[in-house]
Amino acid sequence: MASDSPVRVLAFAADEFACGQWRVIQPVRAMDDGRVAASISSGTHIDLESFDVAVFQRVLWPQQIRVLRALKQAGKKLIFDYDDAFPITDSTHREHATFAPGSVNSDALEQALALADAITVPTPQLVEHYRQMHRRVVLLPNAVDLAGPMFTNGPAEHVAPGLTVFWSGWTSHEENLRLIEPVITRLVRSRTDVYFALSGPTEFTAIFSALRGDQKMIHFPKMPYEPFMRIASVADVAIAPLTLTGFNQNKSEIRLIEAGIWGVPVVASPAAPYVRFEGGRGACLLAEGNSLDAWEHHLTRLLDDSALRRQVGRAARTAVESNYDLKQINVTRADLLCDV
What we know:
This protein has helices at 19-30, 62-73, 96-99, 104-115, 124-131, 149-152, 174-190, 225-231, 254-260, 272-278, 292-304, 306-323, 326-338; strands spanning 7-12, 36-40, 53-57, 77-81, 118-121, 137-139, 163-168, 194-199, 217-220, 237-240, 266-268, 285-286. With 340 residues, it is α/β, with parallel strands linked by helices.
């Protein structure tokens, strides 16, 4: 799409929290490239004369297809972003019935991909997954604008009188959190200096019911994205557990980026995204085999050794600066938007 004037882009976020921020809202806000004039859609009215390229997130529903066909017929270029592997082939996944191969939503995905001019994804595994279904798949890793106001205002205040172990996530991560519960409960109850902070659904506090009477659990409810991105800074150590399913191997490094921004060391499952973040540089500690013994060993190492916490935290911050800088990723994003 060669032109002397900027390519006009209208982006549609799937939500105003979590993946919508990472994949659409923050990248558009941070776009500082004269080749592109990008904005985020607000409301239901679409002015067809106001944009050349439309970016949609997670196009998976039959009711979306009619609008997309109309945009295509109007000569608009379409880019769809997917941050998970659809359709879902893992029969144990909580949303398998909704997005299984042969479902109505799987059919909608197939129709959407036929309309798309390009697909964007955050991980190399997802590149390979969607290349089986589309000719042009572009890797745009999740990233942050470290010079932006969310991160230049400094960390949040520490909330516990001792060492804080921190986890964040939402409803789809319940199984991952339950994986590590025995270790967290045992560590927090056996040590007077350790507290557990959870940022997620209120009902997740019931997973750690044994900590309620000890008053050693701190719960952060859902909050706007900007303060949420500072919450990890309350931690001395963060955890990023994942069950080692095929679906989760396609996940991204978000949990480690959130902590790494603030130099917080993380113990993580040895899943593909976290191995990639660690990168052989010690940017996190990986729980070998995802065993509870390995989790407890690495958490204890970090809790007992402030020098090790600083070392791993510095490596994590360096990894974020080197590999997850949104301004760098937006150069690739702008190249795509200008050549779709």
